[in-house]
Design a protein that fits this description.
The chain is an all-alpha fold. β1 and β2 (305-306) form a beta hairpin. The longest helix is centred in the middle third of the chain and has 76 residues, at 162-237. The chain folds into 2 domains: 2-139, no CATH class; 162-367, Helix Hairpins (Orthogonal Bundle). Strands 1-2 form a two-stranded antiparallel sheet. Helix content is 86%, strand content 1%. It contains 8 helices and 2 strands; from the N terminus they run αααααααββα.
Length: 369
């Protein structure tokens, strides 16, 4: 019976269960030795001791676990045992009931231990989450410091009067483009007139070329005629001398053979002819130097066309006027592009920036920033 008492009273709860088991065993031994009780009294004492040991062990374990984890202890209440002594035939049934009660208490104890473990896990998880949140808080504080520095830099950037400079530059460029565009109509009109004049000059080039050729032929004829006259005078006076000297000598020979009255009139004619022949050589030379040669420079053929057309008219028509017209068109396009893609968007952005600045100022004043 003593071994049965020890077996029923043993509940493994940390170190306190051994103490309770020993206490129950000693109590039962003293009872059996000091008092001659009946078997019924022994079983009743055995039952009371076993249940008390089980409940006390479980409670002690829970209290110990609660103290270690700062968790309130869970209290189990036991039903008051009926001290009525059952008849001998009910001993086995009562023993079975006590075993069932013991199993129930052990089940509750296991459930309590699982709850404690769950609470411990939850506490550990909460601590881990707290550490994580603290780390995130530190990181957020560092980010706030970084953003504060960045905000200060943005405020310094905003203090720069870029808007005023941009508007002043846009105004200057817009005024210059407006003045340039105002000159385009007169420039286009001048180009049109110049093109018409060049076209007219180009049409007159054949006439100029014919005049140049005629002058060249006539000059050559005069030179030939003058050379022939000089040769004849040399033959008539039978000597070689300058043209004017030969002419005067020939006129003097003629005057000797004329009557007095006729000789005087002939002298006048000869004087006029002498003047004419005297001016003829420099005239021929002047025509070649001052007229024929300049005309040759502009009207002589180069690459199958007059030099004036090749050097001046065609480059002006095909390069200067064409490129100038294209440039004027591009200037108008640049002005339109400038207005649509730069001037108007910048003006809109400046207006929006001013509005946002006003909102920022109001927000700071409202929140005391």
């Amino acid at each position: 019976m003593k071994r049965l008492c020890v077996a029923l009273g043993t509940v493994a709860v940390n170190g306190s269960v051994e103490f309770l088991t020993a206490a129950g065993e000693c109590a039962m031994s003293d009872k059996l030795e000091n008092s001659a009780v009946s078997r019924r009294s022994f079983l009743r004492a055995l039952t009371v001791t076993a249940v008390a040991a089980t409940a006390t062990g479980a409670g002690a374990a829970l209290v110990n676990q609660s103290i270690n984890n700062n968790i309130p202890a869970t209290t189990f209440t036991t039903q008051t045992l009926n001290t009525h002594t059952p008849p001998p035939s009910d001993w086995l049934a009562e023993l079975a009931a006590l075993k069932a009660e013991n199993a129930r208490l052990q089940t509750e104890l296991a459930a309590a231990q699982r709850n404690l473990q769950a609470l411990q896990a939850s506490t550990n998880q909460s601590a881990t989450q707290t550490d994580t949140l603290m780390a995130q808080l530190d990181e957020a504080n560092q980010q706030i410091v970084v953003l504060s520095g960045l905000l200060a830099l943005y405020e310094q950037l905003d203090d720069l009067d870029v808007t005023g400079l941009a508007l002043a530059g846009l105004t200057a460029v817009s005024d210059a483009l407006t003045a340039l565009l105002a000159q385009i109509p007169s420039l286009e009109e001048g180009i049109t007139q110049a093109q018409a004049t060049l076209n007219e000059l180009d049409e007159q080039l054949p006439l100029l070329e014919n005049g140049r050729l005629w002058l060249q032929r006539q000059t050559e004829k005069l030179e030939t005629y003058f050379a022939d006259v000089t040769h004849m005078l040399e033959t008539a006076v039978e000597k070689a001398a300058p043209f004017l000297e030969l002419l005067n000598q020939w006129f003097a020979d003629i005057l000797k053979w004329l009557p007095f009255g006729l000789g005087q009139r002939a002298q006048q004619v000869m004087t006029a002819m002498t003047t004419l022949f005297t001016e003829l050589p420099p005239t021929i030379q002047g025509l070649g130097t001052n007229v024929a040669e300049p005309l040759d420079m502009w009207l002589a053929e180069q690459q199958g066309e007059p030099a004036l057309r090749h050097k001046l008219i065609r480059p002006l028509q095909e390069t200067i006027f064409t490129n100038t017209s294209a440039t004027l068109t591009q200037i108008q396009q640049v002005s339109e592009t400038y207005r649509k893609t730069l001037a108007e968007p910048v003006e809109t952005a400046v207006h929006q920036q001013q509005t946002i600045r006003q909102l920022i100022a109001a927000y700071r004043q409202q929140n005391g920033l």
